[in-house]
């Protein structure tokens, strides 16, 4: 399920939302390395609790597109590359974006309330954890029908949460909030009644002459 076998062009064509998000993160990271414009980009977008308290609310969104280093970027984009396509496929583009952005935003909101005003943060990990949470909701509804999904997703979620609390310089508030928000949205997206409504055949109205 999470083994990517598509060619580059197939991947972009089949998963345009995930592909666009990865491209945006990579391009913004590369721009942030350039002289003269790199510092303004980072200063404008970094998640600063102090500046958010001063009314710069865009900083609840922009940190999702900034990363602290190449390994930070690669880890998050690899996770998005592997796990994002399946969620985009089963949930649809709009629902995927809802999970991704709301998980990331609420992760940044949680960061604002949990940490002090000097706290600075960047990274898409809150949104990535939202993807894990949405899959957790899918597992909740399909644990008997899709045991393979459960065997894959639950260890990943557990391991990710454990690493959140034992790794250095990790924004635990964003991770946990993103996971919870993704799960809650997933409960709505993948509710059996809603799934049935997606699959109902559309009736064609034929006008009689």
TrEMBL record:
<comment type="similarity">
    <text>Belongs to the peptidase S54 family.</text>
</comment>
<feature type="transmembrane region" description="Helical">
    <location>
        <begin position="96"/>
        <end position="115"/>
    </location>
</feature>
<keyword id="KW-0472">Membrane</keyword>
<dbReference type="GO" id="GO:0008233">
    <property type="term" value="F:peptidase activity"/>
</dbReference>
<feature type="transmembrane region" description="Helical">
    <location>
        <begin position="121"/>
        <end position="142"/>
    </location>
</feature>
<feature type="transmembrane region" description="Helical">
    <location>
        <begin position="12"/>
        <end position="37"/>
    </location>
</feature>
<dbReference type="GO" id="GO:0006508">
    <property type="term" value="P:proteolysis"/>
</dbReference>
<keyword id="KW-0645">Protease</keyword>
<keyword id="KW-1133">Transmembrane helix</keyword>
<dbReference type="InterPro" id="IPR050925">
    <property type="entry name" value="Rhomboid_protease_S54"/>
</dbReference>
<feature type="transmembrane region" description="Helical">
    <location>
        <begin position="172"/>
        <end position="190"/>
    </location>
</feature>
<dbReference type="InterPro" id="IPR022764">
    <property type="entry name" value="Peptidase_S54_rhomboid_dom"/>
</dbReference>
<dbReference type="Pfam" id="PF01694">
    <property type="entry name" value="Rhomboid"/>
</dbReference>
<keyword id="KW-0378">Hydrolase</keyword>
<feature type="domain" description="Peptidase S54 rhomboid">
    <location>
        <begin position="55"/>
        <end position="190"/>
    </location>
</feature>
<feature type="transmembrane region" description="Helical">
    <location>
        <begin position="149"/>
        <end position="166"/>
    </location>
</feature>
<feature type="transmembrane region" description="Helical">
    <location>
        <begin position="57"/>
        <end position="84"/>
    </location>
</feature>
<protein>
    <submittedName>
        <fullName>Rhomboid family intramembrane serine protease</fullName>
    </submittedName>
</protein>
<keyword id="KW-0812">Transmembrane</keyword>
<dbReference type="InterPro" id="IPR035952">
    <property type="entry name" value="Rhomboid-like_sf"/>
</dbReference>
């Amino acid at each position: 399920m999470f083994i990517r076998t598509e060619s580059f062009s197939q991947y972009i064509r089949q998963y345009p939302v995930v592909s666009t998000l990865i491209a945006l993160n990579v391009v913004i990271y590369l721009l942030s390395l350039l002289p003269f414009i790199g510092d303004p980009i980072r200063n404008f977008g970094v998640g600063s609790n102090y500046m958010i308290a001063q009314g710069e609310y865009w900083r609840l969104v922009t940190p999702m597109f900034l990363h602290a280093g190449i390994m930070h970027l690669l880890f998050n984009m690899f996770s998005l590359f592997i796990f994002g396509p399946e969620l985009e496929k089963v949930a649809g583009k709009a629902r995927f974006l809802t999970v991704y952005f709301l998980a990331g935003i609420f992760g940044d909101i949680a960061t604002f309330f949990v940490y002090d005003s000097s706290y600075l943060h960047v990274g898409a990990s809150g949104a990535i954890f939202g993807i894990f949470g949405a899959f957790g909701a899918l597992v909740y509804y399909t644990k008997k029908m899709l045991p393979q999904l459960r065997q894959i997703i639950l260890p990943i979620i557990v391991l990710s949460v454990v690493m959140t609390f034992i790794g250095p310089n990790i924004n635990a508030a964003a991770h946990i909030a993103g996971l919870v928000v993704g799960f809650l949205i997933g409960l709505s997206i993948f509710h059996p009644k809603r799934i049935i409504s997606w699959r109902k055949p559309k009736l064609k109205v034929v006008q009689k002459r």
